Amino acid sequence: MHPAPSVILFTTLSGLGFGLLFFLGLGMPEVTGKVAFVFYTIAYALGVGGLLASTFHLGHPERAWRAFSQWRSSWLSREGCCAVAALLIMGAYAIGAIFLGTHWTLLGALGASLSLGTVFTTSMIYAQLKTVPRWNMVPLTPALFLTLSLAGGALLAGQEGQAMGLLALAGLTLLAYWHQGDRAFAQSGTTLASATGLGPRGDVRAFEPPHTGTNYLLREFVYVVGRKHAMRLRAIGFGLAILLPLICLSLPISGLLAKHLLAALAVLSHIAGVAATRWLFFAEAEHVVGLYYGKR
Amino acid sequence: MTDLPQTTTRKMGLVIDLDTCVGCHACVISCKGWNTENYGAPLSDQDAYGANPSGTFLNRVHSYEVQPEQGPAQLIHFPKSCLHCEDAPCVTVCPTGASYKRVEDGIVLVNEDTCIGCGLCAWSCPYGARELDLAAGVMKKCTLCVDRIYNQNLPEEDRQPACVRTCPAGARHFGDLGDPNSDVSQLVAARGGIDLMPEMGTKPVNKYLPPRPKDTLARSQDQIDVLSPFLAPVAEDTVGFLGWLDRALEKLPGGSN
Hints:
heterodimer, A: 296 residues, mainly alpha, Formate dehydrogenase/DMSO reductase fold, 67% helix, B: 257 residues, alpha+beta, Alpha-Beta Plaits, 18% strand
């Protein structure tokens, strides 16, 4: 699948933003006033920034409001509804924390669950697609999005204890996702033989494509550039997203400044690592339509 | 809502005969022509006269080579367009309701005025039947020439999809696949029509007729091989200079036998 920068940016940033909103909604940390303002600004910049980035790949961004209408059948529509609901509820909760110095616990819990729901609905957009076996893994694909979002949220919220556990959990989920994903296409049972229905007659080979040039389908679904570096990128992504933040958090350092610098390093490293694994999430995913072109 | 209809009154669709298709691409061209000049956004081309031309097509013809266990390989031309699936994943994923399946005839269509061009329907289609038009920014797909088949302004013989009307080999058939007595349904039953990627669970309406076995004449020896006794090699052993050369070369190391 073509790794569109807007979609990678969106899923990475908004995943972090809604992860942070989840922890803020649960009162972790229980901040008020100016400190709360800084936390919510970061969360909203990530969440809203990601949402806006996602509209860049639309053919008609001005019609994006229509996407709120089909929540009964479409995961993409559910994601839009869930995201706006989470941002509105958490906005009200943030007003209480910043200006009134109070925490409306019930509202916060609702906002937190909606924030997590947004990440879940995002993951289901991909997990629902039978056409991309590497994504069509429930519960592994949603688990991957949720654990990475929660780990990143815990890091941003300064919840060191939870961050350690969640980072480890996200790391294990990432390894499981790669392990299972590498077998997914073969296990789906879809081959050129089933795609053409010519399998019972003999070995089928793509002889000639429909056109000498490229087309939308090949550009969008048969993205093979960079796959040869997949293993190296997996190692880099895993190191930056999981290992380095874990090391930063577990170093026994007492100075406040050093601790803050290490936390900042952990956050930046985590974001870069998640972006790298998210790029792989798309670049490594193979759409069954490639079979018709004799490609994967 | 983009829910699929429980049932459709009719199941209009195509039957494509892989035995008859000669791979001339006339259906591709007539489809591009009709759907550029008539309903909806035209099917645009990018860099049409440049070094890297590409464009939007609703129908494309692939060619496959099939190598049976015995006998020569066969070349099979394979036209592919929207299969108007009963359980169309492209309809339910649509966030705006622009994609829909009609109750009256089962045709899957896109409302180009409400399509946001997110591309998710194309992602969900295993057949590559939908293409995002880069000039218009909306999703394009086969309409089963909905502006031809009911068009009272056209002569009756033209009230079928452009690809069917134009096919010089008669490899494309159009009709109601929900009616077991229709011509197309009987053709599918007689020839053992198949679904593409049945494991995807899309329940395509369009059917493909597998190629008939070819070269059966060659197998009945008494019919075709009357000349074969005369074509047998007349000399198995080489003699003279060539025979000496053959033996001398065989003695050198590095030969295959």
